[in-house]
Amino acid sequence: MSIRLKTVLGVALIEAVLLALLVYTAMRYMHENLDEALIKRANTTVSLFASTAKDPVLAYDLASLETFSVELGGNADIVYVRTRSPDGFLLASAGTSENLDEPFLEDHDLKSVVDGVFDVSAPISVSGVEYGRVEIGFDIGSIETSLAETRQLSTLIAIVEMVLVAIFSLLLGTYLTRQLMVLQLAAKQVSQGDYSLKLKVDNGDEVGEVALAFNQMASVLKESQQTRDRYENELVELNQTLEQRVTRRTEKINAQYEELKVTHRQLADAQAKLLQAEKLASIGQLSAGIAHEINNPISFVHSNAHSLSKYIDTYQELLGMYRMAFEAGPEEMAATKDKIAAYEAAEDIDFVTEDINTLITDTIDGTVRVQEIVKGLRDFSHTNHDTKMPCDVIECTESTLRILTAELKNRCRVITEFEPIPPVLANRGELNQVIMNLLVNAGQSMDEFGEVLVTTKVQGDRVVLSIKDNGKGIEAENISKLFDPFFTTKPVGEGTGLGLSISYGIIKDHDGTIVVDSKPGQGTTFSVCLPILDSRESLEAA
After folding, report:
1. What pTM does this model have?
2. Which pLDDT band, with edges at 50, 70 and 90, does 466 fall under?
3. How far is CA 319 from CA 23, 311, 347, in A?
4. Residue 240 belongs to what H/E stretch?
């Protein structure tokens, strides 16, 4: 077997194995990611819709329930939405008739889907009592199409690359064997006493170097007296070869540098997308609690407004009586006064007057609470892309705590001890994201109701924000891996493993640090250190 054939077969075999492994790994990774994304979206959607449908089901408001179902069923990938009572009675539905008539068989992953529809359900319950169940079907046709297209494209790329590698291997083997044949013929001529042979050197690679060495050997055998001149000429040739190598090496380094710049930009884009995805996931996770926090004050504001409307009707009726008394003659005055007194006693005007003030005060308090929640959401979602400006760490922390009230109130009591601190130069939206990740982790670290202490202080030329919990703590072997992407100690489905990694990248981009101090069973403290904004940076930011 020739060297050329060995080269082609060897390279082709290695390339085939690597390509097969790459295609398999890529398809498996894509399938798992799509499976995980579908499960997460399906569970989130059905949980949120179950929360939304809770009030209509409890109030037996089937019209609102039907409206909610139709709105959700309007999504392109949702083929049906059903809400049933505990005994299986259909309360509301939306979707195509052929899918609504199918019996419900819940799916747990893509492999379990046999009809092209991913079926999930969630109970509608209050205090452990189930009042109904939501069933939703997601069309996985787009996922199957993506997998098929990816599989076809990967196969096509693998075939093209195999062909290109085979052609390259053939050219390389041909080139090497041709050069070896030239050397073989020259060696035979030298062995027969012909020392005048000079091999042509066309390039500066290893084959060219062998040919050059061969010429040097022939020259030594032919004219030993010209050794000095020959060495000088060879030195010139070697210098020229070295310059060519330096030039090629420089060009290669420049090309690699440009590739590194492109890769860096791609990594920056990927980090921005991960940050936005994690932020959207966090907002989705907290949305139900935030909606509940807003719904409570809105509910009693609505109730108060209804009561005030009745009181206004009472006052209008009473005002009409007073006008009649003002227009009545002397003979009718006594009867009118008696009627007014009887009406005031019947309606308990003194209580109404006192209750109106209470209702107005409570209504104002409720609207202020809603304003605080909305302001917290606005502050949290506020982004300036890559813009950094002077930020108050305490204000960012307070706004984040406002939107985390529902998430934390059932897990822990939050204590704040804020010392006055100077501003820092930061992207407010990214800083809010870091604070939220640390507070949510602190709350989720507790098996029982606990405490979270949030403090601020100035340490040298830096501002320090510390979040300390008395949860279960972190094992020593896991502390060094906390900021690794996709590392999490939470159960599957409860964490992406990106929160702390993204937070670490954000703080590092702000020239700051995150320090972790934790002992199992004694709690954990995360300390965020950021440089204080000096006057020069303040002017530049302005």
Report:
1. 0.40
2. very high
3. 84, 12, 13
4. helix 227-327
